[in-house]
Amino acid sequence: MASGRKKVSVIGAGNVGATVAFHIAQQGYADVVLLDLPDDLTLEKPRKTGSMATGKALDLNQASPIVGYSSRIKGTSDYADMAASDVVVITSGRPRSPGMSREDLLAVNADIVASVAAQAVRVSPAAVYIVVSNPLDAMCHVALKATSLPASRVIGQAGVLDSTRYRNYIAEAVGVAVEDIQAYVLGGHGDQMVPIRSLTTIGGIPVQQWVESGKLTEEQLQKIEDDTRQGGGILTGLIGTSAWYAPGVATAEMVEAVLLDRKRILATTILLTGEYGVSDLYFGVPALLGAAGAEEVYDLSRLVRLTPTELAGIEDSAKKVRVTVDSLRSLGKL
Ligand SMILES: NC(=O)c1ccc[n+]([C@@H]2O[C@H](COP(=O)([O-])OP(=O)(O)OC[C@H]3O[C@@H](n4cnc5c(N)ncnc54)[C@H](O)[C@@H]3O)[C@@H](O)[C@H]2O)c1
User: Fold this and answer.
1) Residue 130, strand partner residues
2) Fewer CB atoms < 10 Å away: N or C end of the chain?
3) pLDDT per residue over 194-216, tens digit each?
4) Quick one: pLDDT at residue 48?
5) For residue 147, which of 164, 130, 159 has the smallest C-alpha distance?
6) For residue range 274-299, what is the model confidence (pLDDT) as tens digits?
7) What is the DSSP string of 18-52?
């Protein structure tokens, strides 16, 4: 697969991983390695010719003549194939089933993320790592420990997804194009995530003004915020497992920001070191993403006037994430 293109490795060739691979391949600027376990041990007749990841890669390559991309996708279970990656995405682990919280996945996914991150960093020590596996904030701590990389190169995807869900709900309620909604959903990737109303604009106009002018009711906006917080659970209830299209493209957007050094400001799960009054905790906040990973962190609590509700929401969300991270410690996994 030698080419002049950049290299992105996606660990976990399941729903989210394969969607990330497909979206990146379609952009044409990187080849993709899709890594999964050697074979599905639950299969009655294990495959003779390769693993599930090799099958998905073949399928993705066979889509390329029609879609028109030259990126190549390699499916593998051998970490040597992902050597010298520019970006590594970690999606391996169990997804949610209906009624499950992300925290229910804690112990099982901690072992998986620790194991894959440790193996990946041996062959790709210079990469930026983007964690997707849940519970997201806690899994970032696990990946940081397993890789021993600087925290700026171990980041998590949650806020881009949560924000796109919020933006989509608002666009539908108001009847304007999704592109014209700008919004951040910050905090932990759980039901206590915090939609930041004071930075939400529709066509550049603050959302609160849309409420005051009667174009959107307070009740509608509150329901949108609630549905955003419950977004993953609603989808899991409908689909029977975690969603993957929006999570996949949200992750690909972060990959692109790093790979192309785009200096995007995206809601990113990063290790806070005092910003927002929070230390030593992975948490979703706006960060500048470029080739070096999270290159700058923006402390909105200092930069803009957040409402008391937003500040309280951030504090509550941080407390909730800390409880999850502490339970990882008490399980001996951090
Ligand atoms: N952060 C987010 O916004 C977000 C959104 C959606 C899903 N998720 C999480 O992403 C993860 C993946 O979700 P999914 O829907 O793709 O699940 P999935 O079951 O479709 O795929 C997970 C894949 O990981 C693989 N895997 C398990 N252990 C592995 C190991 N040791 N090495 C390599 N591969 C391994 C499995 O074989 C499987 O193919 C879940 O934890 C889910 O909760 C996060």
Assistant:
1) 89, 155
2) N
3) 999 999 999 999 999 999 999 99
4) 61
5) 130
6) 999 999 999 999 999 999 999 999 99
7) HHHHHHHHHH-SEEEEEE--SS-TT-SS--SS--H
Alpha-carbon gap, residue 127 to 293, rounded angstroms = 9
- Distance (angstroms) between ligand 1 centre and the Cα of 118 equals 17
Distance of CA 15 to the CA centre of its chain: 13
* Ligand 1 contact via 189 beta carbon (within 6 Å): yes
Q: Which contiguous run of DSSP H or E holds residue 282?
A: strand 279-290
25 Cα distance to chain centroid: 18
Helix (H, G, I), strand (E, B) or coil at 249: helix
Return the sign of the alpha-carbon dihedral for residues 166, 172, 178, 181. negative
Contact 81, 33 (CB under 8 A): yes
What residues act catalytically?
Answer: 189
Question: Which one-letter amino acid corresponds to residue 21?
Answer: A
Q: Looking at the predicted structure, is the pLDDT value of residue 2 above 90?
A: no
Rounded distance, CA 211 to CA 222, Å?
Answer: 11
SS3 content of the chain, % helix, strand, coil (to 5): 50, 20, 30
Tens-digit pLDDT profile for residues 133-188: 999 999 999 999 999 999 999 999 999 999 999 999 999 999 999 999 999 999 99
State residue 43's pLDDT score: 60
CB-facing half-sphere around the CA of 142: CA atoms within 13 A: 32
163 lines ligand 1 (CB under 6 A): no
CA distance 289 to 250: 13
Tokens representing 323 are 């409880």
